[in-house]
Amino acid sequence: MIVMPAFMLLSVVEMVRRRRLREDYSLLWIATFSLLVILAIFRDILLDPLAQSMGIAYPPAALFVIGFGLLLILSLQFSTALTKLAVQNKQAAQHIALLTARVRELERHFDENNELLN
Amino acid sequence: MKVSSAPSITHLDSNLQKEIRILVIIPAYNEEQSIGKVITRVREVVNDADIVVVNDGSKDETARLADIQGAVVLNLPHNLGIGSAMQTGFLYAREYSYDVAVQVDGDGQHDPSEIPEIIQTLQSSGADVIIGSRYIEDRGYITPWARRMGIIFLSGVISLLVGKRVTDPTSGFRALNRRAIIFCAADYPFDYPEPESVVLFQRAGLKILEIPVTMNPRYGGQSSITPLRSGYYMVKVILAILIGLLREHPKAEGEVIHA
Q: How far apart are the C-alpha atoms of B79 and B40, rounded to whole Å?
């Protein structure tokens, strides 16, 4: 119960260290796994009362419920990040299209002028 | 280095009366069978217009054929969807200060011979956007039954929202004045943009006017709307329009140019 989230937490930190994961995207992951680790460590004073208040008889099951909720938040964050990237991608693609057309037109003019000079 | 106007345009003598500069925007995705014909027809009927083809990441010969026909080709590096492709055309129109932009589909459904009338109506009516409608007059355009129902439903919803009868909100046969061009260049719906844009226009204070047009069956290629997608289309469009209503009112800026 402790080992898994603790291992994942270390993995996330390692991925950020190796620049495989950006700091801002790692924040939610670190928060998620830290919370799970803390709940698991302080099972008696945190997890058990929490499980009881949620009406869950078997406290470790509460961890899954909490983990699931956090996962939903994380995937929603992905969707917003994707949306932002899609908008930026669209704008970049539109700029490329407009600039390429302009470059071609300039090249054409340049060639025409050169021909006139020769 | 600043290029102040599209090089393909002959510079007008500033002493002469200001001429209306027209840009025909043709969005195209894999339309090699029809694009050449469409460009030729457009040039025949409006020879003073510039033509820009927005190639939305086609995998066929669309771009090369459009280039051969002498159109300016805006090549998007990958497929962005019709809305973002059209916005690219509007960005071009804004950048090169066109007074009128005409949207004509690359698949040959729209009859270019109706473009002069659409442009003329734009200039004479005082509307900011003219929409060519298949359903004002019965001109023999046959719509599949299910799609017709969808369009009737959609036009009902949209007519209610804009407080004015809109018979063919999905029509992409349109003309826009400079004010509308600037509005669309700044922000345009990405996926199925036509119905949504009608609501956006009205909320931005842009005047819409529909005129009857004839539409052809397609020259070639395939419609992007399959029966399966129609359901998704309806849900997406309605959702987009309704959520759009929760946003702040978009603003149309710029001077009103009516000839």
A: 25
Distance of CA B63 to the CA centre of its chain: 19
Q: Do A94 and B72 lie within an 8 Å CB cutoff?
A: no
Contact A101 B7 (CB under 8 A): no
- The answer to whether ipTM exceeds 0.85 is no
Contacts of B11 in chain A (CB under 8 A): none
Contacts of A97 in chain B (CB under 8 A): 54, 74-77, 88
Closest residue in B to A108 (Cα–Cα) = B7
Task: In whole angstroms, give the CA distance from residue B253 to residue B206.
Answer: 10
pLDDT tens by residue, chain B, 259 residues: 444 444 444 444 444 456 899 999 999 999 999 999 999 999 999 989 999 999 999 999 999 999 999 999 999 999 999 999 999 999 999 999 999 999 999 988 899 999 999 999 999 999 999 999 988 887 777 777 777 888 888 899 999 999 999 999 999 999 999 999 999 999 999 878 999 999 999 999 999 999 999 887 655 555 555 667 777 888 888 898 988 888 887 777 765 544 4
Is B87 in CB contact (< 8 Å) with chain A? yes
Q: Does A100 touch chain B (CB under 8 A)?
A: yes
Question: pTM for the full model?
Answer: 0.83
- List B102's β-bridge partners, or say none: B24, B175
B46 contacts B115 by C-beta, under 8 angstroms? yes
* C-beta atoms of A96 and B76 within 8 A: yes
